[in-house]
Amino acid sequence: MSVNPQSKHDAVVDELYAEAGHWKINTGEEKIHAKRIPGKWRIWKWLASLVWLPFFLVPYLRWDDRQAILFDIPNRQFHLLGVTILPQDFWMLSLLLLFFAILLAVVTALAGRVWCGFFCFQTVWTDIFTWFEEKLEGSPQKRKKLDQGPLTFTKVRVKATKHLIWIVISALTGISFVAWFMDAYQLWADLVSFNIGITAGVTILLFIGGTYGLAGYLREQTCFWLCPYARIQGVMVDNTTAVPTYDFHRGEPRGRVKKGSSEAQRTTGDCVDCNQCVAVCPTGVDIRHGQQEGCITCALCIDACDAVMEKLDRPKGLIRYESLDVLNGKEERPLLKRPRVWVYSLVLLLSVTGIGYGMATLDAIEIKVIHSRQPLYVLQSDGSIQNKYTIKVLNKLTEDLQVTISAPDIEGLVLVGAEEHVTARKGMVTPRTLFVRIPRDKLKVESQPLVFYAETTDSSGKRLSSKRESVFIGPK
After folding, report:
1. For residue 396, what is the domain's CATH number?
2. Is residue 333 in some structural domain?
3. How confident is the model at residue 1 (pLDDT cuts 50, 70, 90)?
4. Residue 70, in any domain of the structure
5. Distance between CA atoms of 71 and 49, rounded to whole angstroms?
6. Residue 71 pairs with which residues in a beta bridge?
7. Residue 252 contacts by C-beta under 8 Å, 6 or more apart in sequence?
8. pTM
9. A cellular component term (GO) from this record (predicted)?
10. Which of 356, 223, 355 is nearest to 281 (CA)?
11. SS3 labels along 284-329
């Protein structure tokens, strides 16, 4: 038996507005319980949240006899696989921070607050917390009813289970953070034996409280009032930026669908004022009012609107990723005509180049040479000229090294104090005082260039070396 298309259409309208009656625009006076619906952008949100998996897993990877990536603050060492970075190389950290800051600006200029909507830890953790909340307490309407209902055994049981799960997630977050700064396996052993240090213990407790409070209670209020990015995004977004946008040309004037009416008879736009875009918004904004501070560009409103349009047999895309210029009929401005993007990209390139150069030239050992100024030189009884130097050997490895110091480039040079190896302690700077003597007839100028070399081998037999230029001062 065939189904009357008009009856099917009227049934869809009844279902749509029966639910729409429960939704209104939230102005912050009550807790937001966002509706979850399936869709393309919801899938992308879950996939994007997987970028945080390494935060939990990477600390357990091993490299030789230590943690693969370890930020050892007490010993002032950063271990990245086979590379050890000491405070002397922290200029690369500055370039890395600059890279991510400019990358954020580039992405915002092109596609709005994509970081906020898909990758931000506040967004991801809140999404996980509310997913468990929905599984335990039900739909948004049921959650509101439960919150407003009397205190019963069922309510206590459900609420206690939810908060216990939240606390477990918060604890794992805190432990995972601390595991980047101390050996992860030792951290768990200390936790099990209740032998955790004060610093690690306090840090974990702070993360538990912060995660539990921000993702469980403050939620969207964190984005509104605590995050500075919401305030500065306005200077990064312009009319050429593609963001989730309501097509007001097509949607207005809004009008509810009347039962029994046909598409040919309607005089309103495509927006049927169902408020589904508001219902799914995690910050409770109405995208139809244009770009707002609370919009985190998560694109869930696109899924909601497309689902409604599909039910009503209307074209999708009433809400879509689009720039204001394109929406108003202007020709889309290509990247080649957007100087700001080029400037951002140049800074990104320079940052990456600097980091690459730093990593490529990162030596396992380094030496610094300090020439004594008092006196500049000493005339010896045999007629030779003597200069005094302090050689500082920096060992970036996790093992002690026996380093040989030499300066072989000048004929007749005698190096006093370098007869024995310098025992360079792991991760430390080891000084050694040396005297350089050169026959006066071998000095061609008053200030003679002089190169010191440091050579050693590690436990695997790999040869390591470093050199540093200095000067040898003689009489006029």
Report:
1. 2.60.40.10
2. no
3. very low
4. yes
5. 24
6. 78
7. 269, 271
8. 0.75
9. plasma membrane
10. 223
11. CCCHHHCCCCCCCCCCHHHHHHHHHHHHCCCCCCCEEEECHHHHCC
